[in-house]
Amino acid sequence: MKYCAFLRGVNVKGTNMKMAEVCEVFKDTGMKDVSSILASGNIVFSSDKNVEELKTILEKAMSDHFSYEAFLFVKTQEEIEVFWNSIPFEKNDTFHIYGFVGIPGVEKVLMEEFQKATQVENEKAAIVNDIFYWQVPKGNTLDSTFGKVLGKKSLKDQFTSRNVNTFEKILKKMN
Questions:
Q1: Which of 109, 116, 152, 166 is most buried (CB neighbours < 10 A)?
Q2: How far apart are CA 120 and CA 99, in angstroms?
Q3: In angstroms, rounded to a whole number, what is the distance separating the alpha carbons of residues 80 and 85?
């Protein structure tokens, strides 16, 4: 089965790694057809193992190899197609749209945080098919109140986010 592992916190705040080296770690654990998409920690691969086994194996291998506490989320090709096909916002050159990958139920936590945050003009959030999506005007991602919430240490093992354009690139690589 084809999967994509979404690594959290890669190439930010001092956690730097080359994707070629990450791919080698994946291959060393027995993953097949391994390749990376962008430098933000998106690894496409094939395996006969289930998602829970993969998460355990890959987090341990990444933690051991890179000497950091690795968090990653493994999704099937079918799940990534749902991410791509459920985007609730129109693409527009003035906005970034993010999809969030995480543990079951994290979309509700994110929506609560979003509703508590002060929004900038045209900043929106929606949950579709248990997936949290966020639209924010370009240039406001890190400055928005919600953008700051995303860095909370208490949430670090619960989700990661990607620009929806990344999901498109991942799907193209999987097909």
A1: 166
A2: 19
A3: 9
